[in-house]
Amino acid sequence: MTFYDIALAPPIQKSACSPNPWKTRYALNFKNTPYKTTWVPLADISSVRGAFNIPASRKFADGSPYHTLPVLSDPATGRILGDSLEIATYLQKQYPSSGAGDLFPPQELGFVFGRDLELHAPIAEAAVEGHIAAYAKFNTNVDAAFSAHAQLGVQEFPFDPATAEENKAEFSRRIGVPWEMLGISGEERGKLLRSFEETLGGLASLYNRNASGPFLIGDRASYADFIVGGWLHWARGTLPGEEWKALKGWHNGIFGRLHEALEVFAQID
Ligand SMILES: N[C@@H](CCC(=O)N[C@@H](CS)C(=O)NCC(=O)O)C(=O)O
């Protein structure tokens, strides 16, 4: 299989911090299904994805298509999938007993992020069947909870220096704000960090349900942990070191322990 992830600053394996591709990497490693990663520069996502003739999985606020990664292509079945949750459900259906087993064990995933976000590209909930709907809802809420604090990752975002100016200009164009004005510092940053910590408290309560941890259902990881873990990679890759260190310690160290425990599924080829 070929897994398409976003190439950021070299060495790309070290800077990889795109949350949705990370969810896919965790799922592929969990399933132990052989794959190779193709690294796509930010500016090439539309052309690479366009060549596959699959619909965009997101839309900008004006309704135009937003081409994203991950994409997974499986030559065994000829399938090409372009949405992280769709990829995970495909892997579970196609390779039910591979690797560490069921990616979607039935479980309660009652974390709700109740704030409406005015994002330049709204988050849409993927359509899935049966008990996986709880995972789709969780995915949407976790995406929203982290996206609400994404501004914290602007200043140290690991762009490839060779294309950084072009990438920043494109993001600024989409959002309608100059890149330099997107970053947040001082008192405002402190406030947003406190909001982030408080928001993650809701997720921490879900983790506290199982006192032994480190995963939501104890010693067995599921796709729900990969959803959170994908975003922890975003935090690790874009927050200043001391803030990432602090985050790992928030709520009795739940997120630091989770990030470490997910290491067994984090290998990059
Ligand atoms: N619903 C999609 C969302 C994918 C998504 O938003 N991907 C981001 C990276 S995490 C992306 O490709 N961004 C490229 C860009 O902003 O140009 C999924 O779950 O796969």
Automatic annotation (TrEMBL):
Q: Where is the GST N-terminal domain?
A: 8-99
Q: Name one Pfam family in it.
A: GST_N_2
Q: Which residues form a coiled coil?
A: none
**InterPro entries registered for this protein in UniProt:** Glutathione-S-Trfase_C_sf, Glutathione_S-Trfase_N, GST_UstS-like_C, Thioredoxin-like_sf
Recorded protein name is GST N-terminal domain-containing protein
User: What does UniProt list as this organism's lineage?
Assistant: Eukaryota, Fungi, Dikarya, Ascomycota, Pezizomycotina
